[in-house]
Write a structure and sequence with these properties.
The protein is of the alpha+beta class. It is built from 6 helices and 7 strands. It folds into 2 domains: 84 residues, no CATH class; 73 residues, no CATH class. The two termini are 22 Å apart.
Length: 179
């Protein structure tokens, strides 16, 4: 295999895993015709391998085990529940938290000399949308600002943070594995 060929960007463990029927999420999803999100949320990863020029850790799934999981009645029912849950999350009404004290960092300056300015607002209304990683903050003057609720420098009340974590549980997931 020459440098730059498709196989040269995978670890030896990744090549062995693919020879044995374990693949990255996208390939398993395409092979089985099951949404990648359903596989990621419902099936455990058995391992991860280093892949790509910068040796990223990529989770690998056993295609036979995933096919068997979604092939039986229980797996099909879980998949339908997952699809129904995704649709309801996307169409869900936002949770409203009036009278919150919020704060965040606004960055300026140059790339070599960045300057952070702390911005604080009292009595703001925070809207948390299901399945979204951003919140809408309506300030007292009526201006609306969208910010990532888990961003660095973001300060939200504890109740709002718990609601965000409950409505968007995939943020901050850890991955297991070995290589």
């Amino acid at each position: 295999m020459g440098f730059g060929s498709k196989e040269s960007w995978r670890s030896h463990g990744a090549k062995e895993a693919e020879a044995e029927g374990r693949f990255p999420l996208g390939r398993v999803s395409k092979l089985l015709g099951v949404p990648a999100g359903a596989i990621r949320d419902l099936c455990p990863t058995g391992e991860w391998h280093h892949v790509g020029m910068f040796a990223a850790e990529v989770p690998y799934y056993d295609s036979k085990a995933v096919a068997a999981f979604f092939g039986d009645d229980h797996g099909k029912a879980l998949l339908e529940d997952w699809k129904r849950g995704k649709k309801s999350l996307l169409k869900g009404e936002p949770m409203v938290f009036p009278g919150c004290e919020v704060g965040w960092l606004e960055w300026g300056g140059t790339r070599g000399y960045p300057v952070a300015k702390e911005v604080r607002h009292e009595k703001a209304t925070v809207l948390v949308f299901p399945g979204k990683t951003q919140v809408s903050i309506v300030l007292q003057d009526g201006k609306t600002v969208r910010k990532r609720w888990n961003g660095r420098g973001m300060a939200l009340p504890e109740g709002v943070l718990k609601a965000c974590q409950g409505l968007c549980p995939r943020i901050g997931r850890d991955r297991g594995g070995e290589d």
